[in-house]
Design brief:
The chain is of the alpha+beta class. Helix content is about 15%, strand content about 35%. It has one domain. Strand 1 (about 15-20) and strand 2 (about 30-40) form a beta hairpin. It starts with 16 loop residues before the first strand and ends with a helix.
Length: about 130
């Protein structure tokens, strides 16, 4: 797969794909695709919704696989594909994380879903001094 790419659906997303999240102080945080999701009512993979994580990393440059390889998730939830495109532009690489687990995962009715900017808001509070 060639990077970067801007996903329009979950078709090409894979666990471990990551994207930069630009912060107000000029630094970056990082979002990660945890897994695709299966709609339990229709028994098919969701085309726009996936399980995403914000990881415990920030830096002055966009993340690299080497930078983020041992990071832990600090926020996980259901996310729309626009969560990637509205805050980071696109997928810039793939890394391996212990928390990735089974793929795809089934959606349950109690899955917490996040708005497009939730990972950015959480990252701002967690990583910037002005929050």
């Amino acid at each position: 797969m060639k990077y970067p790419f801007t996903p329009k659906s979950t078709s090409y997303l894979e666990p471990g794909h990551y994207w930069p999240i630009a912060l107000s102080d000029g630094k970056y945080a990082c979002g990660v695709v945890v897994s695709k999701l299966i709609d339990i009512h229709e028994n098919k993979i969701e085309s726009r919704l996936f399980l995403a994580a914000l990881i415990d990393w920030s830096g002055r440059q966009p993340p690299t696989a080497e930078d983020i390889k041992d990071c832990k998730a600090i926020k996980v939830g259901g996310a729309h594909i626009k969560s990637i495109t509205t805050v980071g532009g696109g997928i810039i690489g793939k890394a391996d994380f212990e928390f990735l687990g089974q793929n795809p995962r089934q959606i349950t009715d109690d899955l917490a879903t996040m708005g497009y900017n939730v990972l950015k808001v959480v990252a701002e509070k967690h990583f910037t001094k002005n929050s």
